[in-house]
Amino acid sequence: MAPPAGRIRPGRYLGFFVLIVVVLYALVFFTGGGKPTPKLGIDLQGGTRVTLSARTPDGSAPSRESLNQARQIIETRVNGIGVSGTEVVLDGDNIVITVPGEQGDQAKKLGQTAQLGFRKVIDAQTVTTPPVAPPPGQGDDPAAIQQAKATRQAADLVTGTGDSLAAGPNASAALTAFTCSTQDPLRGNDDPNLPLLTCDQTGTEKYLLGPVFLKGTEIDNAVSSSPAQNKPQWTVDLTFKSEGRQVWADFTTANIGQRAAFVLDTQVVSAPTIQSAILDGNTQISGNFTQAQTKDLADVLKYGSLPLSFTSSDATTVSATLGLASLKAGLIAGGIGLALVFVYCLVYYRLLGVLTVVSLALSGLIVYAVLVLLGRWINFTLDLAGVAGFIIAIGVTADSFVVFFERLKDEIREGGRSFRSAVPRGWVRARRTILASDAVMFLASAVLYAIAVGDVQGFAFTLGMSTVLDLIVVFLVTHPLVAMASKSKFLSQPKLTGLGGVQTLAAERRSARKVPAGAGAKES
């Protein structure tokens, strides 16, 4: 037979809560390597945050489809190089990459457009002066991009088509007048169907190149290759898809003794002379590369080029020492908040305050386990905004206890009930308020999470998660513990529960209601 409304069997509820805790910590210790620590964000453990601003040749806003495609490619690059705990999110027209730990240098390279094209070298000149820096902001100016296209990609720079390409009448003068720049406005924005005046990555040679005859999208695989006996430098080894293999074979067969330029984001990476026909599609990109540079280049070529070009508008690096200090400050703030709640509850509610302390401690127990598991399952990282969400959640959880305890007082004061009989009635009334309050808090957190990005999402997520866990603790721990205390002669003593004043007031009110009835009987 089920108990009356509000009356429960506390042992069952507490047993179910213990089962939840056992399952959670079994997952913590026996899955995912068994390391019982949550993942921390860059502001707590140190790391790098890079903001990439999208740009288009005409200065118009990039399409949402292009931004989403770029974000997906960057995420693929992240997975390919094994950077763990990295977050890639859209923030307006920006892409924000967050990399916890010491792998920030790799994050700064993830926004490379990686538009690779193979162009025929029509003419080349050695550069004797160092590259010049453009005026501030000019490199990102749409007008500068259009001007560069007009002068450096003029159709009359070359004549002929295919294997008969040759320099135009004004090409030599244009190449001589062209100067290399440290920040190329055409980077990632050159037209593959037009010729191109550009420089190599070191700024020591400038080129007149024909249109792209083979796109980087035809690359099937790219790997970093170490120096060998007949190859003193690090290289990137390429293999082509079937169509690209045929195009490359035809070009190398028809252009033995000529140079082919491997152009990455408008810069010439390598421009080797074709010694013989390459029929199997196995090709090397060589240059003055380090091991890290060849690995980075191979990775970005392997996972595809971005549909947009990006500039790094902001790169923030937080040292591990500063992150540790931030974590310590967050823990101190949380500890102070808990201590104040504990003192208030113990002074005002006495035994009920002790039950509050126990409930909060058990709430922290399951919150920690959930944090560890979410870090493993969905790569959730705890940052300062998340810590702030947990600190606010302490107040949300304590508020549920206060609502319950005040309902108990109302039942005793207004209804003249004992502590034991007030618990089930007070719980029925408090339960509705607690559910409504937590529902509103969870809904607000969900809306904030849906419309926000970055740190604000972390705050909303932890606040919403804590709100859900608050309900578990209140329903499975706090209410059963209060019900058990109300059934104990010792624990239900007014001096222990802090309800003595309310019970005295209730008794006085009952006496006051009886006095007029007695006085009327004497007069009659």
From TrEMBL:
PANTHER family reported in the protein's UniProt record: PROTEIN TRANSLOCASE SUBUNIT SECD, PROTEIN-EXPORT MEMBRANE PROTEIN SEC
Transmembrane segments annotated in the record for this chain: 12-30, 329-347, 354-378, 384-405, 434-452, 458-482
All residue ranges annotated as the Protein translocase subunit SecDF P1 domain in the record: 67-121
Primary location recorded for the protein, binned into one broad class: membrane
Database matches in Pfam families: Sec_GG (PF07549), SecD_1st (PF21760), SecD_SecF_C (PF02355), SecDF_P1_head (PF22599)
Protein name in UniProt: Protein translocase subunit SecD
Annotated family: Belongs to the SecD/SecF family. SecD subfamily.
Keyword Transmembrane helix applies: yes
Subunit and interaction comment: Forms a complex with SecF. Part of the essential Sec protein translocation apparatus which comprises SecA, SecYEG and auxiliary proteins SecDF. Other proteins may also be involved.
Subcellular location: Cell membrane
Gene3D superfamilies xref list: 3.30.1360.200, 3.30.70.3220, Multidrug efflux transporter AcrB transmembrane domain
UniProt keyword annotations, A-Z: Cell membrane, Membrane, Protein transport, Translocation, Transmembrane, Transmembrane helix, Transport
Top-level division of the source organism's lineage: Bacteria
Statement: the UniProt record of this protein carries the keyword Metal-binding: no
HAMAP family from the UniProt entry: SecD_B
Domain Protein export membrane protein SecD/SecF C-terminal span(s) in chain numbering: 311-486
Topology in membrane: Multi-pass membrane protein
Functional note: Part of the Sec protein translocase complex. Interacts with the SecYEG preprotein conducting channel. SecDF uses the proton motive force (PMF) to complete protein translocation after the ATP-dependent function of SecA.
SecDF P1 head subdomain domain mapped to chain residues: 203-307
